[in-house]
Amino acid sequence: MIKLATVSPCYNEEEVLHQSVERLTALFERMIAEGLISEDSMMVFVNDGSRDHTWDIIRELHGKNRFVRGINLARNVGHQNAIMAGMMTAKEWADAVVTIDADLQDDIECIPQMVRHFEAGNDIVYGVKVSRKADPLMKRMSAMAFYKLQSSMGVESIYNHADFRLMSKRALQMLSGFEERNLYLRGLIPMIGLPSTTVDDVIGERQAGSSKYTLKKMLNLALDGITSFSTRPMQAIFHLGILFLLIACGIAVYVIHALITGTAVPGWSSLILSIWLVGGFILISLGITGTYIGKIYTEVKRRPLYNIQEILE
Fold first, then answer.
1. Which pLDDT does position 231 carry in this prediction?
2. Residue 8: how many other CB atoms lie within 10 Å
3. How many Cα atoms within 13 Å fall on the side-chain side of residue 140?
């Protein structure tokens, strides 16, 4: 039997924690009875600088429930860094770690399947969303658009997979060797290369409260995912530059012809249009280039991804 740990990042999740722990406890007890996991398995909740009573509730549950452990980060560091903090801590406690959001919208019935795949020799098991009917229409559409854009940019990832996955201790040890500051785990973990497989994940309704993953956070994650693993936006700038050069040559030929034939008409419309077009292209190019330079600036500082204030073991 394996010693399993679930890791759940928490940011202002006081409304769902009691229900989530209750559901996970029932699952753990069933898996223990079936001989899938050992009795010293655990669920680890990472408090990512919550402003509500999330940490107080984790403390309370830790005192009542033998499975519950807690990690309190010194400040809010974001979803990906909080997951990393949980995984790097839990890898010292367990044989395998399953990361799952605290709202448990991912199908927890996939966890026994993940454990069986792990026992069959897979170091990484990805939960792949096969149904997102519980998600709002806009979120479903934006997610599909992002996965397609990510694929077109050459980013290697698992289609329709978020952060619901199982990783073995060996895989986590290898992941710890990736010392990137700009974390995008969905692109980073497939680079490990160990045996892996997938399970079907049906997204359920959120039990209470509302999602803390705002549109702004989703866009920032998408930007990190593309710029951390692909240089194609930079290549696109070069190709657009060539296109603009060809257009400029065509305009030059037209102007020379107009001057020779005497058909040139004085005016400012084409001039203003050209200035705005080229100016916009230059600003976009500078923005994309600046994003990459900013990432280099962050990486070379080597600041810690997180600071742990307290651990409840």
1. 63
2. 25
3. 10
Closest to 9 measured CA to CA, from 97, 92, 93: 97
Tokens 């530059």 belong to 241
pTM score, two decimals? 0.75
Look up residue 39 and give its two tokens: 């009795």
Tens digits of residue pLDDT in 276-293: 677 777 877 877 787 788
Question: What is the residue type of 157?
Answer: S
* Residue 147 pLDDT grade (very low, low, confident, very high; cuts 50, 70, 90): low
Among all chains, which residue has been given the structure tokens 């996939």? 110
What are the pLDDT digits (tens) for 109-132?
999 999 999 999 999 999 998 875
Is 309 strand, coil or helix? strand
Q: Torsions phi, psi of 168, nearest 5?
A: -75, 165
The closest of 9, 3, 79 to 36, measured between CA atoms, is 3
**Residues paired with 37 in a beta bridge:** 2
Coarse DSSP helix, strand, coil percentages of the chain, rounded to the nearest 5 percent = 50, 15, 35
- Between the alpha carbon of residue 289 and those of residues 230, 232, 234, 276, 296, the distances in Å are 13, 11, 7, 20, 11
